[in-house]
Amino acid sequence: MTMAAILSHPSSSAVRSPEAAPLSAASSLSGHHFRQALRLSTVPQVSAPAPRRRISCQTLATSSPASVSFNGKANTGLKDFLHISDFDKDTIMKILDRAKEVKALLKSGERTYLPFKGKTMAMIFAKPSMRTRVSFETGFYLLGGHALYLGPDDIQMGKREETRDVARVLCRYNDIIMARVFAHQDILDLAKYASVPVINGLTDYNHPCQIMADALTIIEHVGQLEGTKVVYVGDGNNIVHSWLLLASVVPFHFVCACPKGFEPDEKTVEKARQAGVGKIEITNDPKEAVKGADVVYSDVWASMGQKEEAAYRRQVFRGFQVDEDLMKLAGPKAYFMHCLPAERGVEVTDGVVEAPNSIVFPQAENRMHAQNAIMLHSLGL
Questions:
Q1: 3-state secondary structure the chain
Q2: Considering the entire predicted model, what is its pTM?
Q3: Which residues form the Aspartate/ornithine carbamoyltransferase Asp/Orn-binding domain (predicted)?
């Protein structure tokens, strides 16, 4: 079979309802054919505000949506992507390997691999975002699909219409749903009632797509994820929760250095520690934490929905800025990462962002490649 024949292999474009039959193995490009195509292509290698709101996942004990799903997804081969810890290590690493393969194919200029041809994705944005929208929409388009943007005023999920109703309507029009929302319960409810895969584009509790992109970036630059030391400096937020959940599946050393009172969710920390896979540390001393780090990671001190606390947090977080001196303590081989957008001069200096060992922009690019692989896995392609 020629490469053109392999890459143009037809895939099913039917939208699956709750009563739909399982995906046919012949309806999509197989992993074997994909890798064959890849080999044949040419690839160049102030005053204190109200008390801080704590974010926790009240349903971690039942984090696998299949057990509470009303939609029959478990019988179709379709999979939600809500928490990294819903999957085992082998699955996570296979998704990351697929991300590398698809990235290489796109970088080569290959544009005939179209596994999403005839498929549509609904993108729900309760929280606006440049990277999440552009990376999902562009990635889905480059692989043959069409993405629909639904902004904060288009649905008003939970206000104008109940989340369960939104889920059951959108899944009858679309093959996959991505949502970037505030309340974690919203993403759980979307997955519970939708008959198509639901991808967690971010919640106040976690951000699994970002951390998959981060893992891909670390593998590309450090050479591996297992055994590395990743040190996060800043607020114990949704990014930290996803790092903790990844460390409960893949063995590496994760350290969160944050001010007292801004630690990550205790149940999530305990879940990661009880897994006995990665080494987990929570500390209030960033200078000690970064010593020997492979990666020093930062994020804004006041996330969306916390901007009224920004001035107060700048006072509390003094000493937690990632500057040139902190990077020197980490060592000459340490990379700097940031999920962006960055407030230069606040949680990180301009010099650190622009330094040769900063990999924030390759990290941002990898959002698209990691998410493409996540969507391929979720759709069983």
A1: CCHHHHHCCCCCCCCCCCCCCCCCHHHCCCHHHHHHHHHHCCCCCCCCCCCCCCCCCCCHHHCCHHHHCCCCHHHCCCCCECCHHHCCHHHHHHHHHHHHHHHHHHHCCCCCCCCCCCCEEEEEECCCCHHHHHHHHHHHHHCCCEEEEECHHHHCECCCECHHHHHHHHCCCCCEEEEECCCHHHHHHHHHHCCCCEEEEECCCCCHHHHHHHHHHHHHHHCCCCCCEEEEECCCCHHHHHHHHHHCCCCCEEEEECCCCCCCCHHHHHHHHHHCCCEEEEECCHHHHCCCCCEEEECCCCCCCCHHHHHHHHHHCCCCCECHHHHHHHCCCCEEEECCCCCECCCECHHHHCCCCECHHHHHHHHHHHHHHHHHHHCCC
A2: 0.84
A3: 226-376
Per residue in 238-285, pLDDT (tens digit) is 999 999 999 999 999 999 999 999 999 999 999 999 999 999 999 999
